[in-house]
Amino acid sequence: MIFHSDSGRLKARVEAKKILDLQNQDREVPAGVFITFFEKDGSTTATLRADYAYYYSEEDRWLARGNVVIHNLKTEETLKTEELYWYPQSGDVNTEKFVKIETPEEIITGTGLTAKQDFSTWSIKKPQGIFIIEDEE
Asked: CA-CA distance, 26 to 70, in Å (whole number)?
């Protein structure tokens, strides 16, 4: 497990079955990763999971790759993509890859995205489609 904190406050917890500490201080997570993001009060705001992750220590940047999913627990919005960068210090995430965002009301697709790590705010760089989800009665 790896913890990211700021001024003693837990911001994120990285969990994996296997974390390889490399000689250059980078870390590789070859068999799946699960990250939990926390509010200031300690409550969970969102989760991220991916098949693979790599931590670039010099840039303080994570790369998540393969079936990447961020889920905001409050808004029930979900991001799905194949590759995503996470910056723990700023709390930002981004990708240049295809994205699919599922909200309770619609599904939005596009290419490229910038967002906050808890997925509370997000922007698709090149939107491609919006599909309305209708309730079946």
From this structure: 23
